[in-house]
């Protein structure tokens, strides 16, 4: 007979093997934290549920199976999970009848196999005996039995006279429950690398707080807040992550003024590490996490990483050190931040003319002696702190910079490279790259509003914000060129200005 439960859906959750291989007391601690994290994630999904420990596994009973499955797919420490088709009591005969009722139509004209796992001490029949008898009842309805590569795999976990029938076995993220390995600080930029690096630390059980060294104003900050929120909302159940946003504008001006351009990239990274370490000290974090991959940019050579590491008084962890960019982007898709991260422009490249790929600690220390480190201290003291689970839509809203309609009297600025501008631009738009615009800003009149656009609307947002600070009425067209092309469906506007 079918067993009734409090909720209509039951999901069997299997723990990551690493958890089960721990010493009993340690494994129990891991499992307790995993259940706590699952509980928090399911509560945030706003569904009714009950979590039950059973035979070394976890059962989730719920009224909303799809939402519960989604939460489990993003809960670290979960190896696999299966939505149960039906729970049957009454022993082998009842199990055989139920299997026919459940799966006779499913196996029609298909190959199939039956796999049964016996749990607990009481075993009237072996797993193999049960598989043969249940499979024998289904054989008349199917094309054939195929034990190696069946079209349909029917499974059951059997405990005493109870059988939990299912056909789906869904992979979870694995790893350890978040919180079991202490706390780390991730230097986050919003790009693919730093987000993926944070995710890998979370997967190994570390809680993450984040430090963002802002190089480009409030619009950039709002983008990073949004990306960090997505990461935490999707994967951070069981934690209370914070994002520390540090305005690095004065820090950059200081290093530009007092150090050689060859060393700007290395010195900038050292300043970021110092900021991260100071926040780590305040909150008791045990390590600094970065998204650096060996050789990806000039500051990430072995020589420069060695020079940069000197300023950190806690371990520096680089989960992506051996990754290539394609792998990192694939992981970002799994995480769910790829579409946001691809819109983040590159702001760290202060010196694009042959930055140094080798450096020495003494050389950099000599350069830094001319800098004013009180500026960095003041920047860290002025950090804006976001509790990521308290961040609202208003916190990431970009209404002050973005515009959805172009005023009739607006001067339109196209921020694409000249070659792309020649291929497509809004009629009458003037072409200014980012550098050209900022270098010629004083030549622009303040009597009319400006509307800037770029491919995604992100770089133009930063430029518009800088223009606003300089006293201009400037906006970025929301959605960028993709949205503008919807307004001009007949093709490019390339007439002469």
What shape does the CA trace take? elongated
User: How many helix segments?
Assistant: 19
| Strand elements, count | 21
Helix content: 25-40%
Strand portion: 15-25%
What is the CA-based Rg, rounded? Answer: 29 Å
Largest sheet: 6 strands, mixed
Alpha-beta classification: alpha/beta
Segments where pLDDT lies below 50 for 5+ residues? 491-497
Strand line-up of the largest beta sheet: 15-14-11-12-13-16
Quote the distance from N terminus to C terminus: 80 Å
Mean pLDDT across every amino acid position:
87
Please provide a written account of the structure.
It is a single chain. This protein has helices at residues 17-20, 24-44, 65-72, 92-103, 127-138, 192-203, 218-235, 249-258, 264-283, 302-309, 325-335, 338-341, 361-368, 373-381, 393-396, 418-423, 434-439, 459-469, 480-487; strands at 9-15, 49-54, 57-62, 78-83, 86-88, 111-119, 144-145, 152-159, 162-166, 170-171, 183-187, 207-214, 242-247, 288-289, 316-317, 384-387, 402-403, 411-414, 430-431, 450-453, 474-477. By secondary structure, it is α/β, with parallel strands linked by helices. Helix 6 (192-203) crosses helix 11. Helix 6 links the parallel strand 11 and strand 12.
Architecture blueprint of SSEs:
Blueprint: E1 9-15, H1 17-20, H2 24-44, E2 49-54, E3 57-62, H3 65-72, E4 78-83, E5 86-88, H4 92-103, E6 111-119, H5 127-138, E7 144-145, E8 152-159, E9 162-166, E10 170-171, E11 183-187, H6 192-203, E12 207-214, H7 218-235, E13 242-247, H8 249-258, H9 264-283, E14 288-289, H10 302-309, E15 316-317, H11 325-335, H12 338-341, H13 361-368, H14 373-381, E16 384-387, H15 393-396, E17 402-403, E18 411-414, H16 418-423, E19 430-431, H17 434-439, E20 450-453, H18 459-469, E21 474-477, H19 480-487
Parallel strand pairs: 6-7, 6-8, 11-12, 11-14, 12-13, 14-15, 17-21, 18-19, 18-20, 20-21
Antiparallel strand pairs: 1-3, 1-4, 2-3, 4-10, 5-9, 8-9, 13-16
């Amino acid at each position: 007979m079918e067993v009734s439960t409090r909720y209509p859906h039951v999901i069997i959750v299997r723990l990551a093997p690493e958890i089960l291989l721990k010493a009993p007391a340690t494994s129990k601690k891991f499992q307790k934290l995993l259940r706590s994290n699952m509980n928090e994630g399911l509560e945030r999904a706003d569904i009714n549920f009950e979590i039950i420990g059973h035979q070394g596994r976890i059962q989730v009973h719920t009224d909303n199976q799809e939402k519960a499955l989604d939460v489990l797919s993003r809960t670290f420490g979960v190896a696999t999970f299966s939505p149960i088709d039906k729970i049957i009591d009454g022993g082998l005969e009842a199990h055989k009848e139920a299997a026919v009722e459940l799966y006779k139509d499913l196996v029609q004209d298909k190959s199939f196999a039956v796999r049964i796992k016996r749990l607990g001490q009481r075993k009237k029949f072996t797993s193999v005996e049960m598989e043969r008898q249940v499979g024998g009842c289904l054989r008349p309805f199917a094309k054939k039995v195929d034990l190696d590569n069946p079209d349909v795999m029917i499974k059951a976990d059997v405990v005493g006279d109870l059988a939990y029938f299912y056909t789906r076995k869904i992979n979870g993220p694995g790893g350890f429950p978040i919180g079991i390995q202490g706390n780390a600080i991730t230097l986050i930029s919003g790009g693919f690398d730093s987000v993926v690096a944070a995710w890998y630390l979370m997967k190994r059980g570390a809680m993450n707080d984040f430090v963002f060294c802002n190089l480009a104003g409030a619009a950039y900050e709002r983008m990073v807040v949004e990306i960090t929120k997505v990461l935490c909302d999707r994967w951070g159940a069981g934690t209370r992550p914070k994002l520390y946003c540090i305005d690095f504008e004065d820090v950059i001006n200081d290093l530009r003024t007092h150090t050689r351009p060859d060393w700007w990239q290395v010195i900038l990274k050292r300043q970021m590490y110092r900021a991260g370490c100071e926040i780590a000290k305040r909150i008791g974090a045990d390590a600094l996490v970065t998204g650096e991959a060996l050789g990806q940019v000039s500051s990430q050579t072995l020589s420069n990483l060695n020079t940069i590491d000197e300023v950190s008084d806690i371990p520096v962890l680089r989960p992506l050190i051996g990754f290539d960019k394609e792998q990192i982007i694939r992981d970002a898709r799994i995480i769910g931040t790829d579409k946001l991260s691809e819109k983040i422009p590159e702001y760290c490249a202060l010196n694009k003319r042959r930055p140094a790929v080798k450096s020495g600690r003494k050389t950099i220390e000599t350069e830094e002696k001319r800098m004013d480190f009180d500026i960095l201290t003041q920047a860290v003291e002025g950090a804006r702190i976001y509790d990521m689970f308290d961040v609202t839509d208003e916190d990431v809203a970009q209404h002050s910079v973005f515009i959805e309609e172009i005023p009739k009297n607006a001067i339109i600025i196209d921020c694409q490279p000249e070659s792309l501008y020649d291929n497509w631009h809004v009629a009458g738009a003037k072409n200014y790259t980012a550098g050209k615009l900022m270098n010629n800003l004083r030549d622009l009149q303040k009597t009319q509003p400006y509307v800037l656009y770029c491919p995604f609307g992100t770089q133009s947002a930063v430029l518009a914000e800088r223009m606003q600070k300089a006293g201009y009425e400037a906006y970025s067209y929301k959605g960028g060129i993709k949205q503008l092309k919807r307004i001009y469906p007949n093709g490019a506007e390339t007439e002469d200005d």
